[in-house]
Amino acid sequence: MARLHRHTRHFIARTPLALAIALAFTQAQAQQATAPVETQLAPVVVQGRAAPSASVSGWGDVPLSLTPIQASVFGAEQAKDRGAQRLSDLTGFDAAISDAYNTEGYWDYLTVRGFVIDNRFNYRRDGLPINAETSIPLDNKAQIEVLKGTSGMQAGTSAPGGLVNFVVKRPTDAPLRRASLEWRETGSVTGAIDLSQRFGDGEAFGVRVNAAAAHLDPKVRETSGSRHLLAVAGDWRIGPDTLLEAEIETSHRSQPSVPGFSLLGNAVPAPVDPRINLNNQAWSQPVVLDGTTASLRWQRKLAGGWKFVAHAATQQLTSDDRIAFPFGCFDPNPAPNGTYYADRYCPNGNFDLYDFRSDGERRRSDALDLNLSGRLHTGAIEHAVSAGILSSRVKNRFGRQTFAFSGISNVDGSITDLPANPAPNDFNTNRDERSTELSLRDAMRFDERSTLWLGLRHTRLQRASERNDPTDPRATDYVQSFTTPFVAASHAWAPGQLVYASWGRGVESDVAPNRARFSNAGETFTQTSRQIEFGLRGGTDAVEWNAALFDIRRPRLGDFGSCDIDASCVRRPDGEQRHRGLEAGATLSLDAWTLRASAQWLRARVQGSSDPAVDGKQPTNVPARTLKLQADHRLAALPGLTLQGAFVAESHRQVLPDNSAQIPGWARVDLGARLDTRWAGSAVTWRAGVDNVADRRAWRESPYQFGHAYLFPLEPRTFRVSVQADL
Fold first, then answer.
1. What are phi and psi of 55, to 5 degrees?
2. Which partner for 210 in 140, 353, 531, 635 could form a disulfide, CB atoms 3.0-4.6 Å apart?
3. CB 663 within 8 A of CB 268
């Protein structure tokens, strides 16, 4: 994950120039025929009566406000108003969602309800599984849905906490001609177009094109890069009851990544200059992430209100993962033997720097989903039933990799002349997976107020792995089957007021590594997580609100023994991680004001572990209290102008599993403005904002990953401005 060529391509690098180009573009395009403006989803976090439906819920077109789950939906316009460019930027909207090893130049991680959701198994695209070990562009996404809680009903294997679903933009009924240009410090510029048109007899055919290109030059040093996207979605309304949809997107991102800071000996250092990049060697190279995803969906309305959907997708990813990577250090003190810090940096700021390279990584995911849904009656009970089968296949192939010592560097970023050590010195592990999932859901409506929700998913899973070392492949191959149920009851005690209770299970599958040091190599483990949730939601014309109490239990695995010689280590279950919490949210619309609030109180603990150092302790990188606020104020004196503000506050996070070190809590304020205007018959939207207004210095998160403690600073104050024209 390293630097680009030093000749930075500043095709637009300053705010005045960006605005001038935007103005010229708008004036030129305004001479074309005007077109109706596309209607966007309401830019609010879901949780009220007017909330949209979300396929990630598992209950089809039922509005989220009527379902026994907690979820959030982030619309494209909401993301633009807040300057969100990547998935991790959405963590500012919902208190249940936070960072998990998010850094410039790499793919995104999310924590939901205190659990890091798995990039391999907890992500969906239009409801089908994808691999999120890549950069996923938002330019062609209509909305992003985040399910909060155990997801066994929606996914065969997945980590507890939640699911993320990306909803692709499809052709609109009205013509759409949209162009946008954005500039942000210090010189990042993104240009994008969004075009949609229907044609043919009765406008039976529709096509939508999204394209974007960006020069990336953030405030973090040595991270200049580029990205681009091209996406095409089409549909064919074959008749009043049949719809055929196809789409494809291809994307590229090349940018150096930024490694984390760490403890200095046993001390948590003061927050550093967030512009420092420890991946700053002359031989550093960018992380290159390429992806192509395509899907085909056929929908057919049947007699009696039933519907059949066949949906297939394929995803092909390639990546070059490269970085000058800090990991541990050796301190000569105390003499004579010194101290090796395996999971942090030395007290004087030194660290061991490694040349890491894994070029040509290839990941492929294929999925086919067949689903039948409809309604039927048994006496006075109405059933909303769906049954489906999902077949998926994953194939990951890697070459040899490099993880070689380069020298000793320091956290001040001053040592930039260490030698490269690029020769491959280790093998990697290829992986294959096949799964077949059978699902059945039934929402049994007894009357206008009471509903019983039943869901069941049975999964047959086959996984195999093999080292790409022909002399020592260390192959594993196993088959598992399991069933994940869900049951809930909801009651509307008054119009627009709902109370519910739910229980569900989720499953993760793991295996003891087939390595000589494990005495139980190849043993499989089925980790069953469980969740109980009680929720309330309701609303009036002016306010929408929700609250939920949840209790999630997730089994843990641990390695025991010296683990330094053959047959000295055993992997086995070791207690559980239990997260109990309360989350609440509200949206208030009052005259010219729109206020949104989200809060979470979380008690997360490791319990039942045989290791006294971690038993009863708080997991790393999980804040106990989180508050997130957004406010919009429409100025009556200047119609079309909306002033925006956001506030995020999080309590302390643990840095080490034994809770012997923690980072303090922090708060951040963001400000913005949106101006909606008409120019020569065209709708033009201007946006401006400043993130981290006070330029607050703090440690944003503290992931304990790869057996190492890392610290990531809060992003520095950053200005941004954009213009969007609908022509």
1. -65, -25
2. 140
3. yes
Q: How many CB atoms lie within 10 A of CB 226?
A: 16
Residue 153 and residue 547: Cα distance in Å, rounded?
22
Question: Under 8 Å CB-to-CB from 504, ≥6 apart: which residues?
Answer: 149, 150, 152, 153, 455, 484, 485, 486, 487, 488, 530, 531
What's the number of CA atoms in the CB half-sphere (13 Å) around residue 616?
Answer: 2
Give the CA distances from residue 188 to residues 120, 142, 227, 326, 598, in Å, rounded to whole numbers and listed in that order: 30, 23, 11, 27, 31
Contact (Cβ atoms closer than 8 angstroms) between residue 117 and residue 156 = no
Alpha helices per DSSP H over 513-564 = none
DSSP 592: T
Tell me the pairing of strands 666-679 and 704-705.
unpaired
Is the Cβ–Cβ distance between 653 and 621 less than 8 Å? yes
How remote is the C-alpha of 696 from its chain's centroid?
A: 25
- Give the whole-angstrom CA distance, residue 236 versus residue 112: 38
pTM for the model stands at 0.91
Which of these, 481, 346, 353, lies nearest to 405 by C-alpha position? 353
Give Cβ neighbours of residue 39 (< 8 Å, ≥ 6 apart): none
Say whether 367 sits in a helix, a strand or coil.
Answer: strand
Can you read off the two tokens belonging to residue 451? 């509903």
DSSP secondary structure string for all residues of 224-289? -EEEEEEEEEEEEEEETTEEEEEEEEEEEEEE-----B--BTTB-PPP--TT--S---TT---EEE
Phi/psi zone of residue 385: left (φ > 0), alpha (ψ -120 to 50 degrees), beta? Answer: beta
pLDDT tens, 218-235? Answer: 999 999 999 999 999 999
Per-residue pLDDT of 268-311, as tens digits, reads 999 999 999 999 999 999 999 999 999 999 999 999 999 999 99
- 254-275: b or e for each residue (b if 16 or more CB lie within 10 Å)? bbbbbbbbbbbbeebbebbebb
Nearest to 224 by CA among 134, 135, 286: 286
Q: Which of 621, 628, 655 is nearest to 161 (CA)?
A: 621
Q: How many other CB atoms are there within 10 angstroms of residue 193's CB atom?
A: 14
The overall average pLDDT reported for the chain is 91
Given a cut of 80, is residue 719 above it in pLDDT?
Answer: yes
Which residues partner with 606 through β-bridges?
A: 577
* Cβ atoms 420, 281 nearer than 8 A: yes
552 near 545, Cβ under 8 Å? Answer: no
Calpha distance 191→723 (Å, rounded): 10
